[in-house]
Amino acid sequence: MSYTTDKLRNVAIAGHGQTGKTTLFEHLLFTGGVIPRAETLESGKTVSDSTPEEIERKISIHAAMGHVDKNGVKINFFDTPGSSDFSGDVILSFRAAEFALLTVDGRSGVQIETVKLWRNLDGTNKPRGVFITKLDLEHGDFDKALADIKEKFKVEPVPVTLPMGSSSSFKGIIDVLNDKAYFLQDEAPEKESSVPDEFKDAVAAAREKLIEAAAEGDDALMEQYIEKGSLSPEEMTKGLVLALAGNKYVPAFAGAPPVNSGIIPLIDFIAAAGPNPRTVTDKMLDAEGKEKEVPIDPDKPLSALVIRTTYDQFSGKLSWIKVITGKLAVDAEAVNVTESKKERIGKLYTCQGKKLEEVKELFAGDVGIITKSATLKTNDTVGVADTGFSFAPLSLPEPVHSIAVNAVAKKDDDKLGEFLVRAAEEDKTFRYVFNGETKETVISGMGELQINYILDKIKTNQKIEVETRIPKIAYRETITKKASAEYTHKKQTGGHGQYGKVMMDIAPLPRGEKYQFINAIFGGAIPKNYIPGVEKGVVEGMAHGTMANYPVVDVEVKIVDGKYHPVDSSELSFKLAARNAFRDAMRQANPTLLEPIMNLTVFVEEKYLGDVMSDLSSKRGKILGQDSAGGIAEIRAEVPHAELLRYSIDLRSITSGTGSFNVTFAFYSPITGRIADDVIKARESFKLQEADE
Question: Is 411 helix (H, G, I), strand (E, B) or coil?
C-alpha cells in the first residue's frame, strides 16, 4: 500500500538507556496490529533488537524501523539506541523523522543522554514530545518527572495523557484530547472507558493547557481563543498540528508500555496532530556549498537522501533512503548525484524490524530501503538528474575513543581491512584509518562499548584474532627563534655533476600557520626554474624534524641567496641543497616539540563534578568553564591528547558509567622537560624497531 505525503508521520523514539524505548516500540506494533504479541527484552524476540549482539547484551545497538496504520495514516517509528556509543543511529533517525519522542523514566527523571539529545534537537528546532514510562513501578511519579523536565529544559510540558494512580495503584491513563479513559487489561490492548469522576477536574485543567497550546499555532486561532475563551475540537486539532510543527509546545504522555498502557492515545495523537512531512524542511548544499532549506514536497521532481547503509546476510546491501521531494518508484531511473552515476531502482522495501516488505513507490516524506545498490552509500543524494546540488550530510559527532589494531596472523590483514571498511560504512561514527606517520591502523568510535562490539564481531564472524594497543600520538616539531644556514650540494661523477647552493633564513610562525615559503632571490643567483626544486627540498626537510623525526610546522622559510652552475645544476641538486640547509637551520633555531591539545566537553551528574575536575587537573587539563542545570553539569576544558587516550574508560569508572563526553582537536602546544624527553625516547625506540623490521 502506498501512502501520500499528507498521510505520513515519522517518529524517532529516543532517550537514556533503560528508559523503555524498545518496549514502547514493541507495544506500539502490537497495539497497531502488526505483531500478534509483544515480546520482552529477556525473550530475545523483540522486533527491533534482532541481532545476536543485541539479544545477548539486551540493549539496542542499531536503529530499527517499524510502522503502524491508523485510519489510513502510516506512522513510521524508529527505535534508537540509548547508549552514547551508538549515537550515530539516533542522529540518522532524527534526520529521518519530523517528530522526536523522548522516553523519560518516571522514577529517575531526566538523565544525561536525554539532556544531550535535547540539545541536539535544539540545534535543528525539531518538534519533540516526552513519554513518561514506568509509572506502574514503585516511585513512578508523572508530576515529578514533568517538574524535572521543566527545570532542566526550561519548558512547560503540556500533558496529552494523564495517569490514573501510580505505582501499585496505577490502573491506566486518560486521553485529555479526546476525553477518554483507558484501563489496564492484562496482556490485551488497554480498554476504553469514560473518565472517572475523581479525575475530571485534573482533566479539565489539562485540557485548558492543551487549548492554550493549540492557540499558539496560528494567529487567527489565538484571536478566536482570546475572544471566546475556548476552541472547537476541530480548531483545537488544527492548532495543535501547527503549534507542534513549529516546536511551540512539548506534548507529554503518561504510560507503562510493558502492560500496554498509554499506547492507543499516543498513536491517536500522532496520527491526528503529529507533524506531517509537509510541515518541515531538509537542508541542501548548493554548488558553492551554501546551506539552503528544502521543503518536503511531493509535487517536485524526485530527490532523496541515503541516511544509512547496512548489510544483511540474506538481502545483501541495504540502503535506507528518505524521500525529500517527488516520488521514488520501482524500476525508475535515477542518478546518484554524489557519484554522478546512474542508479536503476530495482526493488523497494519498507520494513518491520529486520523483516522487509516490498512496496511499489515511496512518496516524499517516507523512508524505505533499496537493496543491492552498486553505488549508493550513506549521505549520497539521489535525484532524477545530476542537478548540481546535494543534501547536507548527517551531522554526526566526532569519535572520542581510539585504539590501534592489527591482525595476529599477517595473512588476515587484508580481510581485517575489508571488514573495518564495511563497519565504517555501516556506522559513520566509526572511523578506520592507516596512519602513515605512526605506521598504525587506528580505529575510532564513540566509546569502548562500540569498539568492543565491532572487535567481537570480527572475532566471532570473521574468525580473525586482533591485537589492540593504545595508538601513538601525532606530535609535531617547530622552532622558537630565527636562524640562518647555507648548504652546497656538490657531487662530481663522470659526465655532468650535481651542484646547487642555497642560503635561507627561517623564523617561527604563529601556531596553526603551518608553513610559508618566500623567494627573496635577486639577480638570478638561483634561476627561477630551480625554485620549485628548492621548495620541494624544504617541504621534504619539514617532513622529519631534527628532535624526534616528527613533521615540522609553523615555520617561515625565506630563500635569500644561492649559486648555480650552468652545466651541473639541476632541480634535484637544489632540492637536496635546500633540504639539508633547512635541517641545519632548524638545529640552530631552538627546536621544540608540540603536542595536540583537545577541546573536551564532559557531561556528568553534579555529584561527580569535583572528582571529574580533579581528574582533569591531574591530566594537565585547563578548565575553561562549567554550567549546571537540574543536577547535570557540563565541564569545558583543554586537555593534551596524550592524556585522553583512555578517557572513556576513566570517566566511566569515576561516574559509575553515567558520564559522557565530546572531544575535538583544538591546537598544538609546546612541551618541554621530562614529558618531551619521554616522547623523544619513545620515538627513538620506534625508529629502532622500524629499522629491525
Answer: helix
Distance, C-alpha 215 to centroid of its chain: 36
Distance separating alpha carbons of residues 481 and 190, to the nearest angstrom: 78
Three-state SS string across 325-388, please?
A: ECEEECCCEEEECCCCEEEECCCEEEEECCEEEEECEEECCCEEEEECCCCCCCCCEEECCCCC
User: Do residues 453 and 59 make contact, with C-beta atoms less than 8 angstroms apart?
Assistant: no
CA distance linking residue 689 with residue 470, whole number of Å: 17
Q: Whose CA is closest to 559, among 530, 528, 519, 526?
A: 519
Residue with cell 586482533: 466
Supply the pLDDT for residue 55: 87
Q: How many CA atoms lie within 13 A of 330 on its CB side?
A: 10
Q: Kind and range of the H or E element at 128?
A: strand 128-133
Per the structure block, which three cell numbers stand in for 403? 585504539
CA distances from 645 to 30, 262, 442, 473, 514 (A): 45, 44, 12, 9, 25
Q: What's the rounded Cα separation, in Å, for the pair 672 and 547?
A: 12
Residue with cell 553534579: 606
Strands 515-519 and 401-407: unpaired
Count of residues making up the chain: 693
CA angle, residues 637, 641, 646, in degrees to nearest 5: 95
**What is the pLDDT, as a whole number, of residue 603?**
92
pLDDT of residue 534: 97
| Contact of 250 with 110, CB cutoff 8 Å | no
Cα separation values, 186 from 36, 163, 615, Å: 15, 17, 50
Distance of CA 11 to the CA centre of its chain: 18
* Cα-only R_g, the chain: 31
**How far apart, in whole angstroms, are the C-alpha atoms of residue 601 and residue 614?**
15
Instruction: Fill in the amino acid letter for 680.
Output: I
Quick one: which of 501, 485, 494 has its CA closest to 583? 485
Q: Supply φ then ψ for residue 272, to 5 degrees.
A: -85, -40
Mean pLDDT by 10 residues, the chain (693 residues): 95 96 98 95 91 89 97 98 94 97 97 91 95 97 96 95 96 96 91 97 96 93 90 91 96 97 98 94 87 94 96 90 96 92 92 96 98 94 85 92 95 95 96 89 94 95 95 95 97 82 98 95 92 97 94 97 94 97 98 97 94 97 90 93 94 91 93 93 73 50
In terms of DSSP bridges, do strands 161-164 and 172-175 run parallel, antiparallel, or are they unpaired? antiparallel
Q: Where are the alpha helices (DSSP H) in 75-218?
A: 87-96, 112-124, 142-153, 200-215
